[in-house]
Amino acid sequence: MNNLILTKEEIEQENIRMRLEDDSLILLSRYPQKITSTALLDKIKNDFIPDQPISKYILENRNLKKITEEIYVENAITITRSTLRYLPTEESFYRSTIVDNNIASVIPFATPLLILHHSLDDLWYYVETPYYRGWILKEEVTLISEQIRNLFENPPKFITITMPLFPFLNTFLDMGTKFPLLGVHSSFYEVLIPTSQGLKICRLPKEICYVGYLPYTPKNILKYAQKFLNIPYRWGGIQDGVDCSFFIQSLFRIFGLSLPRDTQNLEKVFGIEKINLKGKTELEKKEILKKIPYPAILHKNGHILLALSDKLVIHAYGDAKKVILSLLDSCYGTNLYPLLTSISLLRSLHTNKETNSK
Predict the structure, then answer these.
(1) Can you tell me whether residue 45 is helix, strand or coil?
(2) Which of 95, 139, 246, 326 gets the highest tally of CB atoms within 10 A of its CB?
(3) Inter-axis angle of helices 244-253 and 218-225, to 10 degrees?
(4) Tens of pLDDT along 141-182?
(5) Longest alpha-carbon distance in the chain
(6) 3-state secondary structure of 61
(7) Angle 307-305-271 (CA atoms, 0-180°, nearest 5)?
(8) How much is the average pLDDT of 71-81?
């Protein structure tokens, strides 16, 4: 259980592979300094739009008529735990009691990003983040230099937050967020944080941090996954909660893995090996699950789960309204086995012979 799943070098190779296979993942440092109006319009017009009635004003607020022939990309960083939206409005478009179709994703505090465009009312930026693009309130970010963006994107020394939704100033810190490390003291780390007034030195308690990335081991996956138990389920991961994919993304970020945000993208690219379960009977799925190394990632349509064994999973579940441990055959009255579509193995079946009892 303590053996490394991947080394630091292998993790970086995995990140490169995933970026090549999924264009939602980008390195900000490799983004062009300017883009054409055609490229920007293609991005905005290809973005998801809620299928509910949308006012003409909201659509016009995208400010498409004011896009210049060439757009110079600006560097910025979030100064709070922010919400990325598909349209430049705080108006909600509810598909159900928990699903707001205008919510793209939560963006953690201190996330570097790129500004491509401004809304007509000048309250919103259209941005690229390392794993998503959309509209973010201008008041939730501050402009920075390319040098500072690089410092937060790839700091030479850093700490990683190892607690989910740790209260900090007037926001929350997400597991997996990293900050440039300035000093080490007996009970705290001195780090650099972004504010609306510029960079600021602050202290973070050692018990919520780790210097660098954590070793990528089965034991650490299980230990830190359980820290999410009972965290509220929130669509997009907004407010004080997480959703199923943000739970997985945050957890594996502490090991240095840069994962996609959406469940379908995670199913496509995450994992060392894939096992397709479509067309399998429930009995066949159970037999397959008995033979794989754990932990592992399970997928069903629109949902992702971390399997701890062939029967037990941990996941952010909308019906439960929180992160829970559940049995696959009785999850809030639902048997999940027939719904499973695939397995993403974190360790190879052919190179890792650890028993399921571990």
Answers:
(1) helix
(2) 246
(3) 130
(4) 999 999 999 999 999 999 999 999 999 999 999 999 999 999
(5) 61
(6) coil
(7) 80
(8) 98
Alpha-carbon gap, residue 227 to 294, rounded angstroms: 18
Helix or strand or coil: residue 127?
A: strand
- Residue 150 tokens, joined: 């690089």
List the end-to-end C-alpha distance of the chain, in Å, as a whole number. 7
Last residue of a domain, one of 108, 133, 149: 149
Contacts of 7 (CB under 8 A, 6+ apart): none
Question: Domain of 86: which CATH number?
Answer: 2.30.30.40
How far out from the chain centre does Cα 27 lie? Answer: 15
Assign residue 180 the CATH number of its domain.
Answer: 2.30.30
Residue at token pair 């500004």: 115
Q: Is the dihedral of CA 274, 290, 338, 100 positive or negative?
A: negative
Provide the β-strand partners of residue 299.
304, 342
Looking at residues 7-20, what average pLDDT do you find? 97
pLDDT of residue 115: 98
Claim to verify: residue 141 and residue 256 sit in the same structural domain: no
Tens of pLDDT, residue by residue over 266-286, are 999 999 999 999 999 999 999
- Residue 230: pLDDT above 80? yes
Number of domains in the chain: 3
Same domain, 184 and 77: no
Token pair listed for 99: 């699903």
221 and 286: one domain? yes
Q: What's residue 354's pLDDT?
A: 45
The pTM (predicted TM-score) of the whole model is 0.95
Query: Do 168 and 282 lie in a common domain?
Result: no
Decide if 1 is inside a domain.
Answer: no
